[in-house]
Design a protein that fits this description.
Layout: E1 6-7, E2 12-17, H1 21-31, E3 38-41, H2 58-61, E4 71-72, E5 85-86, H3 108-116, H4 124-134, E6 135-137, E7 151-153, H5 161-172, E8 188-191, E9 196-197, E10 200-201, H6 204-212, E11 218-221, E12 225-232, E13 235-243, E14 246-258, H7 261-271, E15 274-275, H8 277-282, E16 289-290, E17 302-309, H9 316-320, H10 323-336, E18 348-352, E19 363-368, E20 384-391, E21 399-401, E22 412-414, H11 421-438, E23 449-452, H12 461-471, E24 472-474, E25 506-508, H13 523-540
Parallel strand pairs: 1-14, 2-3, 2-14, 3-11, 6-7, 14-25, 15-16
Antiparallel strand pairs: 4-5, 8-18, 9-10, 12-13, 13-14, 17-20, 17-23, 17-24, 18-19, 19-20, 21-22
Helix pairs in contact: 1-6, 1-13, 4-13, 11-12
């Protein structure tokens, strides 16, 4: 795209790029006092489609170019040469508009681990008050949860007998039943709390952006594809973006904040000349700053999707293929805002240890009363459940790298799954734990029969590593590609106040800032980073 930029009308103190999970929070917080002029740029459109609000709409939003960036990974050696779809939200609300709606903070040890890396202010006792202040939790205002905030959390509005049985099977294995995974130690079995309100998805666009849109000092622009940032003597000054075939430039008087996510923020930075110098030179991009860590340290939770056929119990598979069942589901939702249309992709959660030597839970199970060959395919016609398990603390690290200066060209995403001996061992143990879970007495009446990985896959470690590569897929939690770190960490992109090291007036505030992935779903931690980041920006003024 040739660039003869037009100066955008208006003057702004803060320009935020990306109206996703983090960007909506930042826009709300930075515009709240009325003192600062805030511009929020979003490449996608408004969330004015029914499937952004009906919870099961993720089935239609993921894999749809209207709402998804439609990324793919490279062929992954650890996945036996397979390439995966890599969904990221492309709409106001970002991935919070298309994700699993599971409200999960992670573990106390995750944040204390960040603090132990030298990141002062990021320990559990530091971040817990932040989590509480933006929550509106159905359990009310307690020592652990908050009420009255922008981020609504509710109990699920549907249940299944077969999931209750899997819960009881975990308890039989010594996993404690828990009503709440968000108290600091999520070891246990229970139902996920969800980001919904009265049976409708609650995205950051609804919770944080909507209250800000009427403010005179705030402006939202959609359909704006950000190309790059322009610097003056290492100070970030302007953002160049495309809208409706025209190129625009907007200046930030105070700071530019990238909140385009662990994939998007990296692309913008690299197109701006910030990143590993050899990568930039290969893409014919002049180097502004050689930042070796930018685009490295990609972390994700790889899930292994085991499927079990069951008997003598109802699953969603049968209802999905029944005309009467579909009508009943629709009426139940229209009349009562309950039933399967309110379902998150996963309902039952189990946090377990892969072996007795683990100091804390390192496995997360997502259990679903349905099965399918792959995401986007129709459900199977036989009764079955999916028992997905992921390694919560992976040691494999991947990369995100642009291969062109053209903003329309997707980056090279290489998660590098199962590339370490530790991750391979956890994958082997996870399949064994899954098999043990499904053999417990609580499930005997439903006669579970393994379909994937399959009864022909032996318990031998080599066979299970291969099976993990066959059934492994992303659970959509990319983080860490512009990690926070101390001044003596050569891979650190950001300092503990989310400022880009070696440059001025520029911060990255989104999931890419995580030095290590949290032990659970990553959306709520990303919102916490944004809320805390906004607090830092205002304090620094």
């Amino acid at each position: 795209m040739a660039c003869q930029p037009t100066r955008l009308d208006g003057s702004y103190d803060y320009v935020i790029v990306g109206a996703g999970s983090a960007g909506c929070v930042l826009a709300n917080r930075l515009s709240a006092n009325g003192r600062y002029r805030v511009l929020l740029l979003e490449a996608g459109g408004l969330d004015n489609w029914i499937w952004f609000h009906v919870p099961v709409g993720y089935l239609f939003a993921i894999g749809n170019p209207r709402s998804d960036w439609m990324y793919r990974t490279v062929a992954e050696q650890g996945l036996n040469g397979r390439s995966l779809a890599y969904p990221r939200g492309k709409v106001v609300g970002g991935s919070s508009a298309i994700n699993a709606m599971i409200s999960m903070r992670g573990q106390m040890a995750d944040y204390d681990g960040w603090r132990a890396l030298g990141l002062n202010g990021w320990g559990w006792n530091d971040v817990l008050p932040v989590f509480k202040r933006f929550e509106d939790h159905f359990l009310g205002d307690t020592a652990i949860h908050g009420a009255g905030g922008e981020w609504r959390v509710e109990a699920p509005r549907v249940r299944w007998d077969v999931l209750d049985a899997v819960h009881d099977a975990a308890v039989e294995m010594g996993v404690p039943a828990t009503p709440d995974f968000n108290a600091g130690d999520n070891f246990g079995a229970g139902y996920f709390h969800v980001n919904q309100k009265s049976g409708r998805r609650w995205s950051t666009a609804r919770g944080f952006l909507k209250p800000a849109r009427s403010r005179q000092n705030f402006r939202l622009m959609t359909g704006c594809l950000t190309d790059r940032i322009e610097f003056e003597n290492n100070v970030a000054r302007s953002v160049l973006f495309y809208q409706n075939g025209k190129t625009y430039k907007v200046r930030a008087e105070k700071e530019i904040i990238l909140s385009a996510g662990a994939i998007g923020s990296v692309q913008i930075m690299q197109r701006s000349g910030v990143g590993p110098a050899d990568w930039l030179q290969a893409a014919d991009i002049p180097v502004v700053k050689d930042c070796q860590g930018l685009g490295r340290n990609l972390q994700d939770h790889l899930q292994q999707r085991a499927i079990y056929k069951v008997s003598a119990v109802k699953t969603l598979n049968e209802t999905y293929h029944s005309v009467t069942g579909k009508i009943k589901m629709g009426l139940e939702y229209l009349l009562f805002r309950r039933g399967p249309l309110t379902m998150a992709p996963s309902q039952l959660g189990l946090f377990m240890r892969s072996n007795a030597k683990q100091a804390r839970a390192n496995l997360q199970f997502h259990v679903q009363p349905l099965s399918l060959d792959k995401f986007g395919d129709p459900l199977h016609r036989f009764p079955a459940i999916t028992v997905s398990v992921c390694n919560l603390q992976p040691t494999s690290r991947g990369t995100v790298r642009i291969e062109s200066s053209d903003a329309l060209v997707s980056p090279r995403i290489a998660p590098n799954y199962l590339s370490t001996t530790q991750d391979q061992q956890v994958a082997v143990e996870a399949i064994r734990v899954t098999r043990s879970l499904m053999s417990q007495p609580a499930l005997a009446g439903y006669m579970p029969r393994e379909l994937l990985p399959g009864p022909d896959v032996s318990d031998d470690s080599e066979a299970l590593i291969s099976a993990a590569g066959d059934i492994g897929t992303t659970i959509f939690h990319p983080v860490g590609t512009a990690k926070m770190g101390t001044a003596d960490d050569p891979a650190a992109v950001l300092d503990e106040r989310l400022r880009v090291r070696g440059l001025e007036a520029l911060r990255i505030i989104d999931a890419s800032a995580m030095p290590k992935i949290t032990s659970g779903n990553t959306n709520t931690p990303t919102i916490m980073i944004a809320d805390k980041g906004a607090e830092m920006i205002l304090a620094d003024r």
